[in-house]
Amino acid sequence: MTAFVLKRLAVGLLTLLAASLVVFFVLEVLPGDPARIMLGMNASPEALHALRTEMGLDRPVALRYLDWLFGMARGDFGRSYTYSSPVLALVAERLAVSLPLALMALALSTAIAIPVGIYAAARHGRPSDTLAMGLAQVGVAIPNFWFAMLLVYVFAVGLRLLPAGGFSGWGVGLDGLWQGVKALLLPAVSLALPQAAILARVTRSAMLEVLGEDYIRTARAKGLPRRKVLWRHGLRNAMIPVLTILGLQFAFLLAGTIIIENVFYLPGLGRLVFQAISQRDLIVVEGVVMLLVAAIVLINLLVDICYAVVDPRLRSSR
Question: What are the ABC transmembrane type-1 domain coordinates in residue numbering (predicted)?
Fold first, then answer.
């Protein structure tokens, strides 16, 4: 097991190094001058030169990349040109919104999808299976931003049960916690349902493949209850593709919520990246993207460890 984890860690470090090269040099070739964007089109050449020198833009690209890389290794992701604040401080502030939002959406998605997928697989070919997968197909097809606006119209404008947008922060005590959860509930649902539709279809397919195996027929022949066969013997052996999708979905929910955060006006990582790109604040974009890549590598490592827990055959060095 230790060799398994060390091998995955080495692959993750190589992935981070390759990602840093791609992120830095792709952003370097983008059009636009950060100094000119900050000072405006009418800035004097002297002011532009002074700001470029202060930002280090007059140095060779290779030296700037190495400084940035070794800075990240020390935990220094640089300082934002626009906000005049350390990138890590900006990320920590926005992560207080994006991380709970991603966790809430993932929990809702899993709670809906796995029972629906097992239910549909257990009733394969019946009208209930067709209905469940038809609803899942509708969930895959509906854009999440349209579904988000529909939720706002129904629950915020019509019923006035939940806020339509904004985030006032996590207050003190249970009341403050509930206010934060209420602000994130509609965004979490709008993110969770399309992901739940995908996960339900994957769970159903994995369960159908497992339910045709000999050991399932043996368990049924021994007289085990149907529920125990499905949940104990069937689901555990069908979990590898489900875990793969869960890992990918969490990475998407953490990094890919730009549209939903703009619909609900949430100050999360997605909005931070969107604003940094529009303001040509490259150091913020590079830092956030690398932190997200690191998060995805870590999530994939955890998924691989879960593979080994679910299927002991994967623990071998081979």
Answer: 95-303
